[in-house]
Task: inverse folding
């Protein structure tokens, strides 16, 4: 094989991408790049309302952000300006801020450059919304996961609970639904499957079944 091996994993919020991506990264001994965390960290760092800044202020602020990825598998560490990201960015509020920031072309360009530069030297599984369509269109292995909104909200509910951040289920349905609408309908790099992506509806599948299916597809493309 020449050059890094890239797997892309896209889909809406709460579909189970992160846990599958970490397991795939472990299974294949490659790094895990959580691009949602990059948008979240950007939004968190610049603060509420930054998505309304005028162009020059935004451009200047974006120049100060430097992302790096180290380690491998589920132990991959994404850092912003040398500081590893923490669970502080994992709330639904910061998710919505991230979605607001993600509509801004300058923000996407900055993230695209960072993501491609990481992928140029490192084999990885890249998780996000536009990995297969925009960032790594040449990746040999692309997945797009989907699931019903209510099921996704339930999974996110459990995930937040595990982090010690209890949430309200109905509020989550509303928040995740609104965020998805915004991610699917934005002008730049909207959430959608690449033409050659493998589509998996995970609503009624258990995580093991989905994992084994993805592993088999990667195996086929690796050799
Ligand atoms: O995957 P996540 O929920 O952590 O992502 C947070 C937000 O970041 C998501 O609602 C939209 C944005 N995002 C994006 O626009 N493109 C990506 N590749 C990843 C995330």
Result:
């Amino acid at each position: 094989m020449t050059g890094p091996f890239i797997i892309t994993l896209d889909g809406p919020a709460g579909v189970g991408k992160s846990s599958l991506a970490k397991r795939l990264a472990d299974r294949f001994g490659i790094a895990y790049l959580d691009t949602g965390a990059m948008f979240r960290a950007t939004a968190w760092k610049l603060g509420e309302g930054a998505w309304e800044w005028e162009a020059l202020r935004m451009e200047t602020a974006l120049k100060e952000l430097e992302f790096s990825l180290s380690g491998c598998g589920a132990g991959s560490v994404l850092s912003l300006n040398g500081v590893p990201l923490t669970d502080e960015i994992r709330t639904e509020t910061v998710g919505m801020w991230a979605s607001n920031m993600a509509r801004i072309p300058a923000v996407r360009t900055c993230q695209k450059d960072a993501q491609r530069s990481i992928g140029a030297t490192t084999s990885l599984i890249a998780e996000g919304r536009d990995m297969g369509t925009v960032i790594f269109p040449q990746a040999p292995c692309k997945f797009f996961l989907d699931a019903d909104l209510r099921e996704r909200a339930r999974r996110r509910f459990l995930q937040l609970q595990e982090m010690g951040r209890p949430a309200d289920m109905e509020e989550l349905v509303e928040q995740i639904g609104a965020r998805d609408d915004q991610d699917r309908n934005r002008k730049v790099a909207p959430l959608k499957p690449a033409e050659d992506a493998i589509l998996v509806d995970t609503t009624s599948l258990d995580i093991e079944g989905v994992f084994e299916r993805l592993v088999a597809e990667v195996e086929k493309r690796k050799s």
In short: The first strand starts at residue 6 and ends at 10. The longest helix spans residues 105-121. The radius of gyration is 17 Å.
